[in-house]
Predict the structure.
Amino acid sequence: MMRKNRTWPIHLALITISMVMLIPFYWVLKTSVAGENIFAYPPSILPKDPHVFFFVDVWYFIPFVRYFFNSIFVVTIVIALNLVFNAMAGYALTKNFRGKKVVMLLLLSCMMIPFQATIIPAYLVTAKMGLLNSYIGLALPELSHIICILIFKASFDAVPKSLVEAARIDGVPEWKIIFKVMLPLSKSAIATNVILSFIWSWNQLLWPLIIIRDTEMQTIPLGLSYFLSYFEDTTGALYAFCVMALVPTIFVFLLAQRQFIEGLTSGATKE
Amino acid sequence: MFGKKRTRELLLVSFLLTPALLIFFVYRILPLLWNLVLSFTFWRPAKTPEFAGLEHYNEMIFYDDVFWEALSNTIIYMAGMPIAIALATIVALLVNARVGGRNIYRSAIFISYPMMPVAVGIIWQWLYNERVGLINYVLLSLGIIDDPIAFLQSTTYALPSVMLVGIWQILGFFMIILLTGLQSISQNLYEAAAIDGTSNWRQFWRITFPLLRPSLFLCFVIGVISSFTSFDLIYVMTGGGPGHATELLITYIYKTAFELSSFDYAGALTIMMFVLFLGITLIANRIAGGEAGKIE
């Protein structure tokens, strides 16, 4: 009973914290729909005669559609092949074979090499393969994530052995066991895999920055950073662009909040 | 017959593992070795490589002031992480309390984490704006400062300002990790402590904190990783400036390689960063592992 009376300080604290966390988003949204001069002082807390002028700017005067297409295209390849490759590798690791320990050790040590520590040779390799400035080059380093392999392995390991054995005795072929038994029981691993590869690929700046030269091939983060370097913060269109870059993530987040939070945490806790 | 089956199984396994292993070989292992080779070579694109011995390391340690500045900035950035973890602990305790709408609070606090860092950097740059930025406006209105501060253009404020954004973005993530840790602590312990009349403060230090230690260390390791990998925020907000006030090792490596084309020297810098990263992570993991072992 005491508890009930005393929840208001907690609410107060949490509302304050949530405000601090959310105000930056409000502020960029407010700026992006402002009809007034964005440099007016003092800054208005509410947008004055809001309209979508800046969004129209972004849509027509920079190749936003092109950036968006590039990003979506690469992200789609990355998610699809991640699912295939990681599920394959995860399944292989549920089996006992010679050299399994070596493979596990190799994967775990590779996890200790951050992508940022590989950029120079990664660039040189990609250049040697003639894949600079290409979609394949963009997607290639992200086509498999070790953490997702381990998540698949754990999920497959959790499938009751008796179920698999029974199927095998009935003469069900290996691939059918994967598709009809393993994968339907691994929905949360699949969701985690999709979310992690989406976020990592969608947000990626460094890699496109290194290997992309043409405007045609730029992804959203790269296009956004170029936009910033050309116009600095002189136009509200910059903030409209930011909003448009964030919307897909927010959309996915709202669509699958629980899996999203769980997925990102399991991505870290298994590291 | 048996042998044949085994061979088939091994073939299947290698087929399944090949794509993933190939990617990790080309984009993880090979680059690491290549960096090592680069770091002992004089090489520029379209030139024949020459053996350099320890020349690059010599230059880095004894002649390169920017390296030392980038290194100390990286360590300062890392030192900000315990602040983020302390804040996240408070937040996690709050959202773990039995209050209505706590899932909404959790989402509101978490949502900054998965957002595109490029956009986040631009948003904060706007908030930090000297003339019309919200932060200056609020500080001026409250009378905390008399003149607006150009946060990102000042050598004093630039690094803390960027760190604040890093902390803001990772706070929700730490909160979730710590929340998971809190929820794994048995309620019986608190009930027993309450019967003994132990104060909330003592309960925290005697029960919660020790049992939360593995989660706290996990946060720290993630914080360490982020201080070595936060390229996007810095690149967008300050580009490492003013001067090199916000230069981190990773931004310095990028500039050395891709703006100055000194791939060999950047390779040596990368090896240095990697060794540091590995050392700190292993030590942190070790402490975390040791502490985790103690609890059980």
Q: What stands out?
A: Residues 62-295 of chain B form a domain with the MetI-like fold fold (CATH 1.10.3720.10).
